[in-house]
Amino acid sequence: xxxxxxxxxxxxxxxxxxxxxxxxxxxxxxxxxxxxxxxxxxxxxxxxxxxxxxxxxxxxxxxxxxxxxxxxxxxxxxxxxxxxxxxxxxxxxxxxxxxxxxxxxxxxxxxxxxxxxxxxxxxxxxxxxxxxxxxxxxxxxxxxxxxxxxxxxxxxxxxxxxxxxxxxxxxxxxxxxxxxxxxxxxxxxxxxxxxxxxxxxxxxxxxxxxxxxxxxxxxxxxxxxxxxxxxxxxxxxxxxxxxxxxxxxxxxxxxxxxxxxxxxxxxxxxxxxxxxxxxxxxxxxxxxxxxxxxxxxxxxxxxxxxxxxxxxxxxxxxxxxxxxxxxxxxxxxxxxxxxxxxxxxxxxxxxxxxxxxxxxxxxxxxxxxxxxxxxxxxxxxxxxxxxxx
Length: 389
What we know:
8% strand; elongated; alpha/beta; Transcription Regulator spoIIAA; 4-stranded mixed β-sheet; single chain
Protein backbone atom coordinates (compact mmCIF):
# COMPACT_ATOMS: atom_id res chain seq x y z
CA UNK A 1 0.00 0.00 0.00
CA UNK A 2 2.81 2.38 0.91
CA UNK A 3 4.57 1.57 -2.36
CA UNK A 4 1.42 2.42 -4.31
CA UNK A 5 1.13 5.76 -2.52
CA UNK A 6 4.78 6.54 -3.29
CA UNK A 7 4.34 5.70 -6.97
CA UNK A 8 1.26 7.93 -7.11
CA UNK A 9 3.18 10.82 -5.58
CA UNK A 10 6.05 10.42 -8.08
CA UNK A 11 3.60 10.37 -10.97
CA UNK A 12 1.88 13.46 -9.64
CA UNK A 13 5.16 15.34 -9.35
CA UNK A 14 6.09 14.26 -12.88
CA UNK A 15 2.78 15.52 -14.23
CA UNK A 16 3.48 18.88 -12.59
CA UNK A 17 6.87 19.20 -14.34
CA UNK A 18 6.75 22.19 -16.64
CA UNK A 19 8.78 24.97 -18.22
CA UNK A 20 7.08 28.40 -18.24
CA UNK A 21 8.68 31.32 -20.10
CA UNK A 22 8.47 34.98 -19.09
CA UNK A 23 10.41 38.10 -20.02
CA UNK A 24 12.43 40.20 -17.59
CA UNK A 25 13.87 43.11 -19.48
CA UNK A 26 15.96 41.72 -22.34
CA UNK A 27 16.26 38.28 -20.72
CA UNK A 28 14.00 35.29 -21.30
CA UNK A 29 13.44 33.53 -17.98
CA UNK A 30 12.29 29.91 -18.10
CA UNK A 31 10.80 28.85 -14.77
CA UNK A 32 11.13 25.11 -14.25
CA UNK A 33 9.12 22.98 -11.85
CA UNK A 34 8.47 19.34 -11.00
CA UNK A 35 10.63 16.27 -11.51
CA UNK A 36 13.12 16.49 -14.36
CA UNK A 37 14.07 12.82 -14.68
CA UNK A 38 15.03 10.37 -17.43
CA UNK A 39 11.70 8.55 -17.21
CA UNK A 40 9.92 11.67 -18.49
CA UNK A 41 12.62 12.90 -20.89
CA UNK A 42 10.41 12.95 -23.98
CA UNK A 43 7.74 15.06 -22.26
CA UNK A 44 10.33 17.37 -20.67
CA UNK A 45 12.02 17.97 -24.03
CA UNK A 46 8.65 18.94 -25.49
CA UNK A 47 7.99 21.34 -22.57
CA UNK A 48 11.42 22.91 -22.98
CA UNK A 49 11.02 23.37 -26.73
CA UNK A 50 7.72 25.17 -26.22
CA UNK A 51 9.23 27.53 -23.67
CA UNK A 52 12.24 28.38 -25.85
CA UNK A 53 10.26 29.26 -28.94
CA UNK A 54 9.94 32.87 -27.74
CA UNK A 55 13.66 33.30 -27.00
CA UNK A 56 14.57 34.90 -30.29
CA UNK A 57 17.99 36.49 -29.96
CA UNK A 58 17.88 37.24 -26.22
CA UNK A 59 19.84 36.03 -23.19
CA UNK A 60 18.47 33.04 -21.33
CA UNK A 61 18.12 32.25 -17.64
CA UNK A 62 16.76 29.03 -16.14
CA UNK A 63 14.99 29.34 -12.78
CA UNK A 64 15.25 25.99 -10.94
CA UNK A 65 13.76 27.14 -7.61
CA UNK A 66 10.71 24.87 -7.97
CA UNK A 67 12.50 21.80 -9.41
CA UNK A 68 11.90 18.90 -7.02
CA UNK A 69 14.10 16.27 -8.73
CA UNK A 70 16.88 16.48 -11.29
CA UNK A 71 18.94 13.65 -12.72
CA UNK A 72 21.61 13.50 -15.38
CA UNK A 73 19.19 13.36 -18.32
CA UNK A 74 17.14 16.32 -17.07
CA UNK A 75 20.27 18.36 -16.40
CA UNK A 76 21.66 17.48 -19.83
CA UNK A 77 18.51 18.84 -21.50
CA UNK A 78 19.06 22.18 -19.74
CA UNK A 79 22.80 22.27 -20.45
CA UNK A 80 22.21 21.50 -24.12
CA UNK A 81 19.70 24.39 -24.40
CA UNK A 82 22.17 26.72 -22.66
CA UNK A 83 24.94 25.74 -25.06
CA UNK A 84 22.70 26.41 -28.05
CA UNK A 85 22.01 29.90 -26.67
CA UNK A 86 25.73 30.57 -26.12
CA UNK A 87 26.46 29.34 -29.64
CA UNK A 88 24.15 32.14 -30.87
CA UNK A 89 26.32 34.66 -29.02
CA UNK A 90 24.02 35.28 -26.02
CA UNK A 91 24.70 34.35 -22.38
CA UNK A 92 22.80 31.62 -20.54
CA UNK A 93 22.73 31.08 -16.77
CA UNK A 94 21.08 28.98 -14.07
CA UNK A 95 19.48 30.46 -10.97
CA UNK A 96 17.65 29.18 -7.90
CA UNK A 97 19.09 25.66 -8.08
CA UNK A 98 19.76 23.68 -4.92
CA UNK A 99 23.36 22.78 -4.16
CA UNK A 100 23.17 19.17 -5.51
CA UNK A 101 21.39 20.33 -8.65
CA UNK A 102 23.89 23.15 -9.18
CA UNK A 103 26.83 20.73 -8.83
CA UNK A 104 25.30 18.33 -11.36
CA UNK A 105 24.69 21.12 -13.88
CA UNK A 106 28.19 22.50 -13.37
CA UNK A 107 29.73 19.06 -13.90
CA UNK A 108 27.81 18.50 -17.11
CA UNK A 109 28.57 22.01 -18.28
CA UNK A 110 32.28 21.43 -17.79
CA UNK A 111 32.15 18.28 -19.92
CA UNK A 112 32.93 18.96 -23.53
CA UNK A 113 30.82 16.95 -25.98
CA UNK A 114 32.98 14.69 -28.09
CA UNK A 115 32.02 13.37 -31.50
CA UNK A 116 33.77 10.22 -32.60
CA UNK A 117 35.75 10.87 -35.77
CA UNK A 118 34.26 9.24 -38.80
CA UNK A 119 36.62 6.69 -40.31
CA UNK A 120 37.84 7.69 -43.74
CA UNK A 121 36.04 5.95 -46.57
CA UNK A 122 37.77 3.62 -48.97
CA UNK A 123 38.61 5.28 -52.30
CA UNK A 124 36.39 4.03 -55.10
CA UNK A 125 39.27 2.61 -57.11
CA UNK A 126 40.45 0.54 -54.16
CA UNK A 127 37.05 -1.01 -53.32
CA UNK A 128 37.53 -4.09 -55.59
CA UNK A 129 41.00 -4.73 -54.17
CA UNK A 130 39.75 -4.38 -50.59
CA UNK A 131 36.94 -6.85 -51.31
CA UNK A 132 39.41 -9.26 -52.92
CA UNK A 133 41.72 -8.98 -49.92
CA UNK A 134 38.90 -9.80 -47.52
CA UNK A 135 37.92 -12.82 -49.62
CA UNK A 136 41.50 -14.09 -49.61
CA UNK A 137 41.88 -13.57 -45.85
CA UNK A 138 38.56 -15.31 -45.14
CA UNK A 139 39.50 -18.20 -47.42
CA UNK A 140 42.85 -18.58 -45.66
CA UNK A 141 41.19 -18.52 -42.23
CA UNK A 142 38.68 -21.15 -43.38
CA UNK A 143 41.52 -23.32 -44.67
CA UNK A 144 43.42 -23.09 -41.37
CA UNK A 145 40.28 -23.80 -39.31
CA UNK A 146 39.35 -26.73 -41.54
CA UNK A 147 42.80 -28.28 -41.22
CA UNK A 148 42.68 -27.92 -37.44
CA UNK A 149 39.25 -29.55 -37.35
CA UNK A 150 40.42 -32.31 -39.68
CA UNK A 151 43.21 -33.11 -37.25
CA UNK A 152 40.78 -33.24 -34.34
CA UNK A 153 38.44 -35.55 -36.27
CA UNK A 154 41.22 -37.92 -37.30
CA UNK A 155 42.49 -37.94 -33.72
CA UNK A 156 39.02 -38.83 -32.45
CA UNK A 157 38.75 -41.61 -35.06
CA UNK A 158 42.19 -42.95 -34.13
CA UNK A 159 41.25 -42.94 -30.44
CA UNK A 160 38.09 -44.90 -31.23
CA UNK A 161 40.04 -47.47 -33.26
CA UNK A 162 42.61 -47.81 -30.45
CA UNK A 163 39.72 -48.33 -27.98
CA UNK A 164 40.68 -45.16 -26.10
CA UNK A 165 37.42 -43.47 -26.96
CA UNK A 166 33.82 -44.54 -27.50
CA UNK A 167 32.66 -45.14 -31.07
CA UNK A 168 28.93 -44.76 -30.17
CA UNK A 169 27.26 -47.15 -32.69
CA UNK A 170 23.70 -45.97 -31.83
CA UNK A 171 24.62 -42.40 -32.77
CA UNK A 172 26.18 -43.62 -36.03
CA UNK A 173 23.08 -45.67 -36.94
CA UNK A 174 20.82 -42.70 -36.21
CA UNK A 175 22.92 -40.34 -38.33
CA UNK A 176 23.21 -42.90 -41.15
CA UNK A 177 19.42 -43.13 -41.22
CA UNK A 178 19.04 -39.34 -41.29
CA UNK A 179 21.79 -38.64 -43.81
CA UNK A 180 21.66 -41.63 -46.18
CA UNK A 181 18.47 -43.68 -45.90
CA UNK A 182 16.01 -40.80 -45.64
CA UNK A 183 17.72 -39.07 -48.58
CA UNK A 184 17.16 -42.00 -50.96
CA UNK A 185 13.74 -40.86 -52.30
CA UNK A 186 14.83 -37.34 -53.23
CA UNK A 187 18.12 -38.56 -54.74
CA UNK A 188 16.29 -41.17 -56.81
CA UNK A 189 13.75 -38.62 -58.00
CA UNK A 190 16.27 -36.01 -59.05
CA UNK A 191 18.51 -38.61 -60.71
CA UNK A 192 15.65 -40.04 -62.76
CA UNK A 193 14.66 -36.57 -63.93
CA UNK A 194 18.19 -35.50 -64.80
CA UNK A 195 18.92 -38.81 -66.52
CA UNK A 196 15.77 -38.45 -68.59
CA UNK A 197 16.63 -34.86 -69.56
CA UNK A 198 20.19 -35.75 -70.58
CA UNK A 199 18.94 -38.70 -72.64
CA UNK A 200 16.25 -36.66 -74.39
CA UNK A 201 18.70 -33.94 -75.38
CA UNK A 202 21.31 -36.52 -76.46
CA UNK A 203 18.83 -38.36 -78.69
CA UNK A 204 17.80 -35.05 -80.21
CA UNK A 205 21.40 -34.43 -81.27
CA UNK A 206 22.24 -38.03 -82.31
CA UNK A 207 19.07 -38.78 -84.28
CA UNK A 208 20.12 -36.94 -87.47
CA UNK A 209 23.15 -39.25 -87.63
CA UNK A 210 21.18 -42.43 -86.87
CA UNK A 211 23.26 -42.98 -83.73
CA UNK A 212 20.56 -43.12 -81.05
CA UNK A 213 22.03 -46.35 -79.71
CA UNK A 214 25.07 -44.47 -78.41
CA UNK A 215 22.85 -42.70 -75.92
CA UNK A 216 23.23 -45.83 -73.78
CA UNK A 217 26.98 -45.39 -73.56
CA UNK A 218 26.65 -41.67 -72.91
CA UNK A 219 24.04 -42.07 -70.17
CA UNK A 220 25.82 -44.93 -68.42
CA UNK A 221 29.25 -43.27 -68.35
CA UNK A 222 27.87 -39.88 -67.33
CA UNK A 223 25.68 -41.21 -64.53
CA UNK A 224 28.25 -43.55 -62.98
CA UNK A 225 31.35 -41.36 -63.42
CA UNK A 226 30.04 -37.84 -62.88
CA UNK A 227 26.37 -36.92 -62.74
CA UNK A 228 25.05 -39.52 -60.30
CA UNK A 229 27.71 -38.75 -57.71
CA UNK A 230 27.52 -34.99 -58.26
CA UNK A 231 23.75 -34.91 -57.82
CA UNK A 232 23.93 -37.04 -54.67
CA UNK A 233 26.73 -34.89 -53.21
CA UNK A 234 24.87 -31.64 -53.91
CA UNK A 235 21.70 -33.01 -52.34
CA UNK A 236 23.62 -34.19 -49.26
CA UNK A 237 25.41 -30.84 -48.97
CA UNK A 238 22.13 -28.93 -49.10
CA UNK A 239 20.13 -31.35 -46.97
CA UNK A 240 22.47 -32.91 -44.44
CA UNK A 241 25.27 -30.35 -44.44
CA UNK A 242 22.89 -27.57 -43.48
CA UNK A 243 21.32 -29.78 -40.81
CA UNK A 244 24.72 -30.54 -39.26
CA UNK A 245 25.63 -26.85 -39.18
CA UNK A 246 22.28 -25.90 -37.67
CA UNK A 247 22.47 -28.63 -35.01
CA UNK A 248 26.02 -27.79 -33.95
CA UNK A 249 25.30 -24.06 -34.12
CA UNK A 250 22.24 -24.41 -31.90
CA UNK A 251 24.29 -26.38 -29.40
CA UNK A 252 26.92 -23.62 -29.46
CA UNK A 253 24.25 -20.99 -28.81
CA UNK A 254 22.88 -22.94 -25.82
CA UNK A 255 26.41 -23.73 -24.58
CA UNK A 256 25.73 -27.47 -24.74
CA UNK A 257 29.14 -28.13 -26.32
CA UNK A 258 30.82 -26.35 -23.41
CA UNK A 259 28.74 -28.47 -21.04
CA UNK A 260 29.99 -31.65 -22.75
CA UNK A 261 33.59 -30.52 -22.33
CA UNK A 262 32.97 -29.75 -18.65
CA UNK A 263 31.60 -33.28 -18.21
CA UNK A 264 34.75 -34.72 -19.82
CA UNK A 265 33.10 -35.71 -23.12
CA UNK A 266 35.00 -34.94 -26.31
CA UNK A 267 32.56 -33.14 -28.66
CA UNK A 268 34.44 -34.45 -31.69
CA UNK A 269 33.91 -38.06 -30.61
CA UNK A 270 30.33 -37.56 -29.45
CA UNK A 271 29.04 -35.18 -32.15
CA UNK A 272 31.32 -34.95 -35.17
CA UNK A 273 32.63 -38.51 -35.59
CA UNK A 274 29.22 -40.27 -35.95
CA UNK A 275 28.07 -37.68 -38.50
CA UNK A 276 31.33 -37.87 -40.44
CA UNK A 277 31.25 -41.68 -40.60
CA UNK A 278 27.61 -41.61 -41.71
CA UNK A 279 28.52 -39.16 -44.48
CA UNK A 280 31.58 -41.10 -45.66
CA UNK A 281 29.71 -44.40 -45.77
CA UNK A 282 26.36 -43.04 -46.86
CA UNK A 283 27.33 -40.89 -49.86
CA UNK A 284 28.79 -43.80 -51.91
CA UNK A 285 25.54 -45.67 -51.33
CA UNK A 286 23.47 -42.67 -52.40
CA UNK A 287 25.69 -42.11 -55.44
CA UNK A 288 25.29 -45.74 -56.55
CA UNK A 289 21.51 -45.70 -56.05
CA UNK A 290 21.26 -42.34 -57.82
CA UNK A 291 23.28 -43.66 -60.76
CA UNK A 292 20.98 -46.68 -61.08
CA UNK A 293 17.96 -44.37 -60.96
CA UNK A 294 19.52 -42.19 -63.66
CA UNK A 295 20.09 -45.26 -65.83
CA UNK A 296 16.43 -46.20 -65.33
CA UNK A 297 15.36 -42.74 -66.51
CA UNK A 298 17.71 -43.09 -69.47
CA UNK A 299 16.21 -46.47 -70.40
CA UNK A 300 12.62 -45.18 -70.29
CA UNK A 301 13.34 -42.11 -72.43
CA UNK A 302 15.49 -44.13 -74.84
CA UNK A 303 12.63 -46.60 -75.28
CA UNK A 304 9.76 -44.18 -75.85
CA UNK A 305 11.61 -41.22 -77.39
CA UNK A 306 14.56 -42.85 -79.16
CA UNK A 307 13.00 -46.20 -80.09
CA UNK A 308 15.68 -48.26 -78.31
CA UNK A 309 14.10 -51.50 -76.92
CA UNK A 310 14.84 -52.48 -73.34
CA UNK A 311 16.66 -55.69 -74.30
CA UNK A 312 18.87 -53.79 -76.73
CA UNK A 313 19.46 -51.15 -74.04
CA UNK A 314 20.57 -53.79 -71.52
CA UNK A 315 22.88 -55.50 -74.01
CA UNK A 316 24.50 -52.21 -74.91
CA UNK A 317 24.72 -51.28 -71.22
CA UNK A 318 26.74 -54.42 -70.47
CA UNK A 319 29.24 -53.46 -73.14
CA UNK A 320 29.45 -49.80 -72.04
CA UNK A 321 29.89 -50.37 -68.31
CA UNK A 322 32.91 -51.88 -66.63
CA UNK A 323 34.35 -52.04 -63.15
CA UNK A 324 36.61 -49.06 -63.83
CA UNK A 325 33.64 -46.79 -64.57
CA UNK A 326 31.92 -47.91 -61.39
CA UNK A 327 35.03 -47.47 -59.24
CA UNK A 328 35.60 -43.88 -60.38
CA UNK A 329 32.40 -42.75 -58.70
CA UNK A 330 32.94 -44.86 -55.60
CA UNK A 331 36.47 -43.50 -55.12
CA UNK A 332 35.36 -39.87 -55.32
CA UNK A 333 32.32 -40.25 -53.05
CA UNK A 334 34.07 -40.65 -49.64
CA UNK A 335 36.35 -37.68 -50.35
CA UNK A 336 33.40 -35.45 -51.23
CA UNK A 337 31.51 -36.66 -48.17
CA UNK A 338 34.47 -35.79 -45.95
CA UNK A 339 34.65 -32.31 -47.49
CA UNK A 340 30.94 -31.75 -46.86
CA UNK A 341 31.17 -32.88 -43.25
CA UNK A 342 34.31 -30.85 -42.61
CA UNK A 343 32.77 -27.63 -43.91
CA UNK A 344 29.46 -28.23 -42.12
CA UNK A 345 31.13 -28.90 -38.75
CA UNK A 346 33.52 -25.98 -39.14
CA UNK A 347 30.69 -23.53 -39.86
CA UNK A 348 28.61 -24.95 -37.01
CA UNK A 349 31.39 -24.32 -34.51
CA UNK A 350 31.69 -20.71 -35.73
CA UNK A 351 28.10 -19.83 -34.76
CA UNK A 352 27.83 -17.12 -32.12
CA UNK A 353 24.96 -16.32 -29.80
CA UNK A 354 22.35 -15.01 -32.23
CA UNK A 355 19.83 -16.41 -34.69
CA UNK A 356 21.30 -14.15 -37.39
CA UNK A 357 24.70 -15.78 -36.93
CA UNK A 358 23.12 -19.25 -37.13
CA UNK A 359 21.38 -18.42 -40.40
CA UNK A 360 24.49 -16.82 -41.89
CA UNK A 361 26.75 -19.77 -41.12
CA UNK A 362 24.16 -22.32 -42.26
CA UNK A 363 23.92 -20.54 -45.60
CA UNK A 364 27.72 -20.34 -45.83
CA UNK A 365 27.95 -24.07 -45.09
CA UNK A 366 25.69 -25.02 -48.01
CA UNK A 367 27.30 -22.60 -50.47
CA UNK A 368 30.88 -23.56 -49.58
CA UNK A 369 30.12 -27.30 -49.57
CA UNK A 370 28.46 -27.24 -53.00
CA UNK A 371 31.27 -25.11 -54.41
CA UNK A 372 33.99 -27.39 -53.02
CA UNK A 373 32.16 -30.51 -54.24
CA UNK A 374 32.11 -29.15 -57.79
CA UNK A 375 35.76 -28.10 -57.57
CA UNK A 376 36.75 -31.52 -56.22
CA UNK A 377 34.83 -33.26 -59.00
CA UNK A 378 36.67 -31.19 -61.58
CA UNK A 379 40.04 -31.97 -60.02
CA UNK A 380 39.22 -35.69 -59.95
CA UNK A 381 38.18 -35.56 -63.61
CA UNK A 382 41.49 -33.97 -64.61
CA UNK A 383 43.46 -36.43 -62.44
CA UNK A 384 41.71 -39.55 -63.79
CA UNK A 385 42.11 -38.28 -67.36
CA UNK A 386 45.82 -37.71 -66.76
CA UNK A 387 46.42 -41.26 -65.47
CA UNK A 388 44.10 -42.82 -68.04
CA UNK A 389 41.67 -44.27 -65.46
